[in-house]
Amino acid sequence: MPISADASFALLLVALGYAALCAVSPFGNCRKCRGFGVEIRTDRKGRPRPGRTCPRCHGDRKRIRLGRHLFNLVSRAHHDGTR
Predict the structure, then answer these.
(1) What is the value of pTM for the model shown?
(2) DSSP 37
(3) Dihedral sign, Cα of residue 36, residue 37, residue 41, residue 47
(4) Does residue 55 sit in helix, strand or coil?
(5) Helix and strand counts by DSSP (H, E) for the chain
């Protein structure tokens, strides 16, 4: 089943929007700790308390976006191949 012109145009707009987001803001909040840098735990009364340092971002609170990571890989490969 072929994709309609409207759907392909919408997909192109989404892709360009994500590329612009990666160019303007290459780092986003860590998805595991939501940008807190620690795992949030609750005590016995149900109040949130900081737990251990986040294993994904190592407490940096930010992670590189997937699109920017792929751009960096392609850019590095192109630079290494054209020396």
Answers:
(1) 0.68
(2) S
(3) negative
(4) coil
(5) 2, 4
**How many CB atoms within 10 Å of residue 47?**
8
Gap between the Cα atoms of 61 and 54, Å rounded? 8
Q: Token pair of 13, please?
A: 């707009």
Mean pLDDT of the chain: 90
| Tokens 């191949």, located at residue | 81
Look up tokens 């990571």; give the residue. 69
Reported as a single tens digit per residue, the pLDDT across 36-67 is 899 888 889 999 898 899 988 888 999 999 99
Say which residue the tokens 């251990």 belong to: 52
> Contact at 8 Å (CB) between 35 and 9?
no
